[in-house]
Structures are given as C-alpha cells and as structure tokens.
Amino acid sequence: MSEVDWSDLQLFFHVAAEGGLAGAAAITGASAPTIGRRMLALERAMGRTLFIRSQQGYRLAPDGMVLFEHVQTIRRTTADITRWHGDAFALPIVAIAGDIWLMGFVAENTSELRGPADSFRLCCKQLPAGGDLTYRHGMIALFHSAPKSGNVAVRKSVTVAYAVYRAANLAFEADLPWVSIGTEVAVSDAEKWVFRNHEPQIHTWTNAPAVLARLIASGAGRGVLPTFVGDAMPTLVREGEPIEALAHPLWLAVNDDDRHRPEMRLVLDRLASLFKRHEDRFAGRLADEKEPSVRPAVRS
C-alpha cells in the first residue's frame, strides 16, 4: 500500500461527516468531482472500500467506519498539539541579560518590569562574557561599556560604583585578609581588582561570583562588591568610599531591529526608569550614613 496523504484523509472526514460530496465541497472549497476522484484514489491506495455510494449520498462502509474513527483520533490529537503549541508561544518573549549582580537586582524588581496585564513573557538570564547582540533578538543586554560594533541601539543609564566590604561583626577588626573572585572566571575590572592590588593577602577565593558576598559576610575576609549589592546587605559594612577607578556607566543595549517592537520598547523604558529611581544606590551614595555603615579604610 502506498503512503496515504493526510489531505486525502481530511477530505474523507468531511465526506463522511457530511454524508456526500456536495457538503464536503461546501466546507473545503474543492469541487465535488475533484473530491469524488480523490475518494476513489484513496480507496485504491488503501485497498479497501470506504463508502457505499447511492443516489442519497455517501454512506460509510465497514472499513470506512474504522478509518473514520482513526481520522477522528488524529484530528483530536492534532487539535491538542495546536492548542499546546499556541499556549506556549502566544506571547512574545523579552529577555534581559547582564552580570550576576545586575540580574539579581532585576529579579528583585520584576514586578516593576512586567505586570499581570502585560502581553509578553519575561526571561532573566546571565550575559556571557563578550556577549554580542548582532544575531540576538528579543534581548535587552546590560553592558559595563558601550558596544563598539554590531547592529545595536544603546542607552546610557546609571553609574555603577564598587567598594570594599567586610562582615558587620568585624567592622573594627584590623588586618583582615582578602576574599576574591578566581582569576579563571574574573572578567571585569572589579572582579580582578583584589588580585591586582592585594594578591599576597588573599586567603579565600571563589569561581562562583554569587558566593562572594556570602563569603565576606561569613567573616572570611574583605572583598569588593557593587555598592547596590553590598549596601543592601545588613550583614556587611562598607570600608571607606567607593573605589573611583572601578566606577563605570551602565549601558542598556538592544538589537537595532528590535527597538521598535512595542514590548521591547516598553520593557526598555521601564528598565531605564527602574535604574534611575535607584541611581543613588548604584552610585554608592548612602541616604543615612550611620556608623559603622561606612568606616575609614584600614591599611593592609
């Protein structure tokens, strides 16, 4: 038996359901003679008699009844798959990508970026080193420096500051060792700063940046964190002022082909407003400087 064409089975279904060629022709738009020829061809291909033909129309033969049940099952399965696919992809996706610290901030504020009535889905992801938006669509990337190439649109945002932190219960402890990000994963100047300036005093390091703040809070030593992270942790205190050489602007970037998509523009505007509202926090400006929130730098 040759392979059966699904379009022929769909025609078969309509002929069987309508009881004749005229009804099937009205539904499908194909002519009655064409449908009749295709039903004959289907019977020959399957080697079975599917219809009992009469002046009153087409009535299903026993083999036709069996095939009709099979086709109904296929149609139900196809409809279920279509609904399943439609539910998953009905809404466009807006992705936001940045380093581990920025994405933690975004995660804490997703309610300001997407509301229950918004017709898009939000994806938060970590941006790999050297992330390029040239071939990435549907993504807003948070960069430490403005992209120098690629088909991208950029918007300058807040200044991000970094400072040295230590555990709050060791606020006045002298000669603390240092905690750092491992050189094998350190990418930014802030992640490399401790190794560059205090390598002999490093007693603990990690290749998981998200663990760094916990190590510092546990008393493992002092380390460098973004001020919007360190100042928000009650278990940490800042040591001195932000490190001026590490401050940098934050850049919001999207593929230029995406910037006019309504959902992308909406999230981009909301993201820019969110950062602006927390501008002082990112710049390391404390509203209420209470001891020992900021303490004088200790020589090491």
Describe this entry's structure for a reader.
This protein has helices spanning 6-18, 21-28, 32-46, 62-89, 100-108, 189-198, 209-217, 227-230, 262-277, 279-283; strands spanning 51-54, 57-60, 93-98, 121-126, 139-143, 152-160, 162-167, 178-181, 202-206, 223-226, 236-239, 248-255, 294-295. With 300 residues, it is of the alpha/beta class. It has 3 domains: 6-89, Arc Repressor Mutant, subunit A, CATH 1.10.10.10; 93-158 and 250-278, Periplasmic binding protein-like II (D-Maltodextrin-Binding Protein, domain 2); 162-246 and 286-295, D-Maltodextrin-Binding Protein, domain 2 (3-Layer(aba) Sandwich), CATH 3.40.190. Helix 1 (6-18) packs across helix 3 (32-46) and helix 1 (6-18) crosses helix 4 (62-89). The chain is elongated. Mean pLDDT is 89; it is low at 296-300.
CATH superfamily of the largest domain: Periplasmic binding protein-like II
Tally of helical runs: 10
Ends apart, CA distance between termini: 86 Å
CATH architecture of the largest domain: 3-Layer(aba) Sandwich
Order of helices and strands: HHHEEHEHEEEEEHEHEHEEHHE
Largest sheet, described in full?
A: 5 strands, mixed
The proportion of residues in beta strands is: 15-25%
Q: Which regions contain 5 or more consecutive residues with pLDDT less than 50?
A: 296-300
Helical content band: 25-40%
Gyration radius from CA atoms, angstroms: 33 Å
The structural class is alpha/beta
Question: What do we call the CATH topology of the largest domain?
Answer: D-Maltodextrin-Binding Protein, domain 2
CATH class category label of the largest domain? Alpha Beta
Keywords: DNA-binding, Transcription, Transcription regulation
InterPro entries: LTTR, LysR_HTH_N, WH-like_DNA-bd_sf, WH_DNA-bd_sf
Family: Belongs to the LysR transcriptional regulatory family.
Domain HTH lysR-type: 4-61
